[in-house]
What does this fold into?
Amino acid sequence: MGFTSGRGDCRLGFSRLGRGAIPTGFAEADQTRFRSLLALAAGSSYDGEREAALAAARRLAARHGMSLSEAARWGREPDPVREETPFERMRRARAAARAHAFRESERRAEEDRNRFRAAWEDALRRGLDREDDRRPSRAGQSFMWRSRRRLEPVQHATVLLNETRLPFSEIAEITGLDRYDVVGLKLKLRAAV
It folds into this structure.
């Protein structure tokens, strides 16, 4: 029932020639090519390119005994769903927990801001004066820390003279003594040795 070529071993069946043939499905390479042609036709801004891509897709579908719409619906079987490993499950759970904690933190911060705004507006309605709320400024006051473990100035100068090679002027500045007092202390220490 088929045509024979000049060589008797090659037969072409009717099922491969007509449109009423049973669809045989696409090979992997043909599926990829068909989808690429459809994507090109859909995304092209040139009419000629779009028409050429659709014509090539129709020819490819006809070669497999399908119309263009049948071939577009024809797809390969979806990849089997891979089961999650315990590590992936744990990583996904940790990510979800971090996202939840972040959302909760943001929600609490927003609630705090809203409570503060409400309290501030309530205080303003009751007559809170912004000038009365300010604390007295310490800008003009100088403040020095005073250690309770501070040495007497003379003892401190004695230690600095014995254990360092600082100039007399710096020792006088550190201890608060006069420079001449520091020099006199140094002379007394030399005489004691």
